[in-house]
From TrEMBL:
Name recorded for this polypeptide: Phosphodiester glycosidase domain-containing protein
Superkingdom of source: Bacteria
Annotated PROSITE patterns: PROKAR_LIPOPROTEIN
InterPro entries to which the protein is assigned, alphabetical: NAGPA
Stretches assigned to the Phosphodiester glycosidase domain: 106-253
Lineage: Bacteria, Pseudomonadati, Pseudomonadota, Alphaproteobacteria, Sphingomonadales
Length: 283
């Protein structure tokens, strides 16, 4: 399975939660080798048109001298869903296109959420509104997605989980309301993935999601290149995540209307959408 390959560029953080420069960057494997595939054109740039007084669900933080953005979804306050494109249409391929189609009302934040093929469609399990758009992928192969164990982030209502793919296959029989498969797992039952070194040579902008014991979902995107090990440590040591899943690297993007951050750059695929349950501030 070929993934997207785009040219490497660092994102620059000039102030708290600014829109980083959306230059194309290179997706690489966990071992630091680049994945070869044709270079797509970067998505069109855009900016949020909504100025909101709603408190941001995201915060800027420095961890081990690297700038990260941490966005928190709480079951009592948020709903989580997945999207790929308009009903019956092609994938959005950018948060800019998604923002134009959806609008910012009631949105806490959105982020790219899983790996995909050249057409932008997921290469693993993917569920939108209880409709399964792609089946569970248990194949072996090259690249981050196939670094076993990989895993699935899924949920229904207020119950959200991350499980390894084997655990999901063996124990989850009911279709969730949302789900996305990616890989590798970063944290498994409170321990870092055994094949992730503390600080390998690969340094790229990356994002992932983790779950804590309180059932909260932590979404993290780096604002500068970092290693897999550092991202995994942040989930384990700072967020106390029991399980965490790598979502993607160097196509990573965030839309946070509260701070008018709308990342642009390389084409993306699946998108996770976190909405506020109380939208009275938008009325």
């Amino acid at each position: 399975m070929k993934y997207v390959l785009v040219a490497l560029s660092a994102l620059i953080l000039s102030s708290c939660e600014p829109p980083p420069a959306g230059e194309p960057v290179t997706r690489t494997r966990i071992d630091g080798q680049a994945e070869a595939s044709p270079s797509p054109s970067p998505s069109a740039s855009g900016a949020s048109s909504v100025t909101s007084q709603v408190e941001s669900a995201c915060r800027a933080i420095i961890f081990e001298d690297t700038s990260l953005t941490h966005c928190l979804a709480v079951p009592s306050r948020h709903r989580i869903a997945m999207t790929l494109g308009p009903d019956g249409g092609d994938p959005y391929r950018s948060l800019t296109a998604f923002s134009r189609a959806r609008g910012a009302s009631g949105l806490a934040f959105a982020m790219n959420a899983g790996m995909y093929g050249e057409d932008g469609r997921p290469i693993g399990y993917f569920v939108v509104n209880s409709q399964r758009l792609a089946t569970l992928n248990t194949n072996d192969g090259d690249g981050n997605f196939h670094m076993k164990p990989n895993g699935v982030f899924f949920g229904t209502g207020d119950q959200w989980e991350i499980r390894t793919t084997d655990d999901f296959l063996a124990n989850v029989s009911d279709r969730p309301e949302f789900g996305t498969q990616s890989g590798p797992m970063l944290v498994i039952d409170g321990e870092i993935h055994p094949e992730i070194t503390r600080d390998g040579p690969s340094r790229f902008v990356r994002n992932g999601v983790g779950m804590d014991e309180r059932g909260r979902a932590h979404f993290v995107i780096s604002n500068a290149p970092l290693s897999f090990g550092k991202l995994a440590r942040f989930f384990k040591d700072e967020l106390n995540a029991t399980d965490a899943l790598f979502l993607d690297g160097n196509v990573s993007a965030l839309w946070n209307p509260a701070t008018e951050r709308l990342d642009t750059g390389a084409p993306i695929g699946p998108i996770v959408v976190v909405e506020r349950k109380d939208t009275s501030d938008d009325e």
